[in-house]
Amino acid sequence: MPSQARQLTRGFTLVELMIVLAAAGILLATSFTVISNAVPRMRLRHAAREVAGAVRDARLQAIRTNGDLIMPFDTSGGRYVTVSRTASGAVGRSSVDGVMRSVASLPADIRFVRPDGGSPTVTLVPPSDESLKAAKFNRKGQLESTNVPGYVYLGDAGRGNYMRLSVMINGNVKFQTWRDGSWH
Known about the structure:
It is a single chain. By secondary structure, the protein is α+β, with helices and mostly antiparallel strands. The chain has a single domain, classed as minor pseudopilin epsh fold (3-Layer(bab) Sandwich). 32% of the residues lie in helices and 29% in strands. It has two helices and eleven strands, in the order ααβββββββββββ. The strands form two sheets. Strands 5, 6, 8, 9, 10 and 11 form a six-stranded antiparallel β-sheet that branches. Strands 3-4-2-1-7 form a five-stranded antiparallel β-sheet. β3 and β4 form a beta hairpin.
């Protein structure tokens, strides 16, 4: 008889299984909410890194070719020009002075936009050229601007996430995020 009693007490009761399943469901729902909120921020960070990489490449090409280089931005279309070394047989790109140029686009939900909705969203050129949305690097790789950094503002479509790329005179790029009404 004692062996039968032990066999009857093995396993989990239905109540215990229901409690575990309820806890697992709560954890799953919570993690889904956290992940779904993080995805737009990660997409924005990735886009900002891509633009920063293109700015750095433009700077390096200006140094390599020992000449001035302009990297245009189409802020209304969410596009910018990337540069690289000339490669023979490249398709869909144009070459000027040994530098390949191609157009890159921001992801569908990312825009050149400021948190306050103001303009301009790209401020990388001297004040006399404000109609031009471009990064202009001289042959030394220096941003041709005033003594303040130039900026590229990016944001996601209506979710309130914003990033700013600060491009220093020497071409270095610093990332900042918009939180609580200021840049951090």
